[in-house]
UniProtKB/TrEMBL annotation:
It is found in: Cell membrane. It comes from Ferirhizobium litorale. This is MFS transporter. InterPro entries: MFS (IPR011701), MFS_dom (IPR020846), MFS_Efflux_Transporters (IPR050189), MFS_trans_sf (IPR036259). The lineage of its organism: Bacteria, Pseudomonadati, Pseudomonadota, Alphaproteobacteria, Hyphomicrobiales. It is a multi-pass membrane protein. Pfam families: MFS_1. It comes from the Bacteria. Its main location: membrane. Residues 14-388 form the Major facilitator superfamily (MFS) profile domain. Keywords: Cell membrane, Membrane, Transmembrane, Transmembrane helix.
Amino acid sequence: MPKQPLSRFAVALIELALAVGGFAIGTGEFAIMGLLPDVATTFDVTTPQAGYVISAYALGVVVGAPLIAVLAAKMARRHLLLVLMAVFALGNILSAVAPDFLSFTLLRFVTGLPHGAYFGVASLVAASMVPVHKRAQAVGRMMLGLTVATLIGTPVATWFGQVLDWRVAFMLVGGIGALTVLLIWIYLPRDKVADGASPMRELTAFKRPQVLLTLAIAAVGFGGMFSIFSYIASTATKVALMPESMVAVIMALFGVGMIIGNIGGAWLADKSLMGTICGSLVFNVVVLTLFSLTATSPFMLCLCVLLVGCGFAAGPALQTRLMDVAADAQTLAAASNHSAFNIANALGAWLGGLVIAWGYGFAATGYVGAILSVFGLMVFALSYRLELAAKRA
């Protein structure tokens, strides 16, 4: 970033530009879930087969985040953000005109590649513009675009896709991505590559135990959110016996919870970083257990879904923690955080599906999430103990 300090207004414009990118990514990632039947009809495949495109995108996120962070180690952050969002925008636009299911699936994989790297680099940029004691709040404001997407972007894109054509939804997301490129080009000042930056230096992040442990906390401890979220429609209609029309309301409550968690968690993280991570895990254990115990009650189901969304409070805290423990390999560590959350997504959905298949019912997904959070607490305890030992040494 430039040596001259930026005005508060300039910082706000940059944060807005970065948040618009997060809004585009969040909308593109989740809108497909409501459009799978339409995609299946277009390409003459079954809905479960159409679900492969979700897995392809997630795989792109997991692979792309560390790969891009290493290969682009010598790129200035502004230039890298422009390239990443341009690839994302183009990938969505090409997805909208894909001629067959194979090309569509491959394009979703390619479109997922910039996801983690974008959020990682954007987090570093946001944190670099504010005082150290306000870093998490800056990261939270950048990530606000992602959380708002779950409340507004995804429902709107899904509605357009269902009323007009699913291809329109991807065109819309591509357009927002293109807008982000323009905003970053206008508002984010040019910067220089850090001295000594190299792929090998970035790879040293994975040699640091605290980096690996922090990523493990995200990958294991927060799988519960996705265990519930993946099957929430069936839980609402088959366990709480709510009408299908309420599923949209429940999804909106989850989005509201994520926004509350993101804002509150970022503020708390600047007060106590480790306390916020630990507190979020304990909070998840309680809420996820309560979800399973009270899932037959429509009111309690709605309340628990809102609270589960609040568990996203750990997002800015974990991102900031990685900045602290990665030393001079911050890009790889920060980008890998989103790979870890996508692993949590896959792990939570898989384990939740297993429990349902074994006959324990949809409500049992909460217990799965609570157990994962307990494992996350165990990893956190190990990380904290090693940190204390290092300080005493």
